Amino acid sequence: MKHSRLLWCLALLLTLAAAVSLQASTHAMLQNPIDSVLHPADSSPADLEKRVLRIGTLALSALLLTSVLLWVKVTNDINRRKRAERLVNLQSQALEQATDGIAIIDLKGRLGYTNAAFDAMHGYKSGELLRKPIDLLQGADAKWVEIYTQSREQINPSGRQERVRHLRKDKSTFPAQASASLLRDEAGKPAGVILVANDITDQMRLEEELRQSQRLEAVGRLAGGVAHDFNNYLTVILGHCELAEAEDSTDEAMRSSLVQIRVAGQRAADLTRQLLAFGRRQVIHPVVLDVNTMVRDTERMIAGLLMYDVRVVVSLASQLKPIRADATQLQQVLMNLAVNGREAMPDGGTLTIATEKHEQHEASAELRPGQYVKITVSDTGHGMPPDVSERVFEPFFTTKRQGRGTGLGLAIVYGIVKQAYGHVTFETAPGKGTRFDIYWPQVEGTVEPPKKPRPAALNGTERVLVVDDTDEVRALASRILRNLGYKVWEAGNGEEAEDLAAKLTFDLLLTDVVLPGANGRQMAQRLQSIQPGLRVIYMSGYSEDSVAQRGLSQDTAKIIQKPFTADELGIRVSQVLHPS
Q1: Which residue in 82, 243, 393, 467 is deepest, having the highest Cβ count within 10 Å?
Q2: Within 13 Å, how many C-alpha atoms sit on residue 189's CB side?
């Protein structure tokens, strides 16, 4: 740049000097006799002519050089201007095509510029918002004044981000993530505010779903822990009740009281199973099954639950792959959703159960990519208002009057589906009914035939080691097995069990999954290293510490769920000791 300026000045000086010299010579020749203007070196007028021509040539060369340099400068200026124009156009296109909503607010609070995303976000056409006050978009939010209508000089130059509600042209509102930064002119003085806004409706919905999921997970953990301890107590209550009923010396009055105790205990056991199902802590027995067959089999039971004025419509897709599920649990999901639909249609309506294939191409917050069977249960009932729908999967939440329900129906649906690595969604609105969509992972395999009826309990004489840190449960299990003829030893923890195994030989180890210091599987493996032929049955009150994480869920024949009856324990022991 410095060299071009120096050349430009030099050419200009040469041109001026040549022009002045040429003008002076020409003037002298025109105003004076030829002899008087001859230079001493000029011997004749011809020499004068040559000198004047040389001066003219010099002037013309200087003028030509000046013209070339001028052309170069003008060309450079034009190129710079074009590049600047292209840059400005590119910046303009970038602003217009940005997915963020961008606006410029002047010092009077008027919109001086809005890009396409900002206009579309608020439901306006291009140019409609220009010169309009920013307060036109105020969505009844206390933060609005703090962010947009405060003194422009008080805005943080580096910008600040807030969540604030904006108002659309149709008067609806939406949550926006907004950032306001100070805009300065060439002199550095405040000239306005740069506003960047994004509609975060979907983001806030996902955040709320995550919070809801975390709340349900926390409640599920609590429910699972309570149910585990409660199952130990129920095992003792129901077991001793059953043993007392079997005593010949029990009179009829006492037997009647025992029946009432057993019925109440079984109801309490059902409640704990529901809590475990919600908390995904239940020991399950999944098999490969056909969803359509399950729906058809359950349809008959559902029809018996509904009122005569509720019509059941079933629409089943063909050629669906099987799923892996606990048949009893899948049946419970369908029954619970049907009951929920029935309660929403006191004046009658239509309950629809449908199946179809669903392919998840991309991972979402709740579903991994893959193929799913989509099970839909919908009703034409009164629907749910927002304050109810946001709590729909919470355990013990119910809109029924006291005594009409536990509030666990939909919570159990949520827990069962999640335990199967599926997902459940719903859509509802007051007066428009409710629709639940369940996404259950498909599997490859052959549908398993129904299990054969379990055999009756058999007496035995084998040697059994019972390990449980709850004294009452250990004593009950030992008494049941002794009544069946087995020889029984007891241990309260893994260390005591290993001491006995070092001295005595056993045919069967009956142990709780959760033990102080070490889990039942680790203790069983150590005992099997001492006695390779030792068979094992695990007792489980719930499955968080246990079955799935300890590799036991694949062999359900070796698990017995608390609370168990004497008959159930006797049958399971016979199955393991005598597999044939």
Answers
A1: 467
A2: 3
